[in-house]
Design brief:
mainly alpha, about 210 residues, disordered N terminus, elongated, two-stranded parallel sheet, 9 helices, Tetracycline Repressor, domain 2
């Protein structure tokens, strides 16, 4: 598992305001993502990032005080990508299989850019309690999309039971995707097919609560 850092991760030193500064920061984050993906946490240094980005180390430090702040930016970018997937994954008018296929396709695509990155983020790079907080704004927003999808298939407004089902669905999908990233088979079509089957069968069978 990834190293745990109790304190809040290092924040950006300053937020870019001008277009040129935003381009510089974007270039730095892309370079950092590539190095973290290719070389892992052990090979990840601010000097390497600056060299690949084509900026001076001083320019990098204007925005990022240390490599933890770079990892923080990379994690935020990944979380934003995950939220974008959920925003596009509307269940309205779709069958369970159609919804599952669209969802898996988009989630796999989000994890297939720099595929080694997700293994490093999961198992090597330090993370803070912020990214493990079940009540973080990301978790609330992310699970809300699953909850709405569940309610859509149940033909009603979201209820507490839909939140529980949405959480189970989210955890199952995240588990499969993250372990596929760890094993290096995120692009395996047979894994995609089984995940689609898992999601669609669960959705099709959840009109009534399970009887224990």
């Amino acid at each position: 598992m990834s190293t745990r850092v109790a304190k809040h991760p290092s924040a950006m030193r300053k937020v870019p305001r001008q277009a040129r500064s935003r381009v510089t920061v974007e270039t730095i984050i892309q370079a950092a993502t590539r190095i973290l993906s290719d070389e892992g946490w052990a090979g990840f240094t601010t000097n390497k990032v600056a060299a690949l980005a084509g900026v001076s180390i001083g320019s990098l430090y204007q925005y990022f005080p240390d490599k933890l702040s770079l990892v923080d930016a990379i994690r935020r970018r990944h979380l934003d990508d995950c939220l974008a997937v959920m925003r596009n994954a509307s269940a309205s008018g779709l069958s369970p299989v159609q919804f599952a296929r669209q969802l898996v396709q988009d989630i796999v695509a989000a994890h297939s850019i720099n595929p080694g990155l997700h293994r490093v983020l999961l198992d090597e790079a330090p993370s803070s309690d912020e990214y493990r907080d079940p009540n973080s704004s990301f978790e609330i927003d992310y699970l809300a999309y699953y909850t709405r999808a569940v309610a859509t298939f149940r033909n009603r407004q979201p209820e507490t039971g839909d939140q529980i089902v949405g959480r189970v669905l989210s955890d199952a999908i995240d588990g499969v995707i993250h372990n596929a990233a760890r094993r290096g088979d995120i692009g395996d079509a047979s894994v995609h097919a089984e995940l689609i089957r898992l999601i669609s069968l669960y959705i099709a069978d959840m009109r009534e609560p399970a009887l224990l």
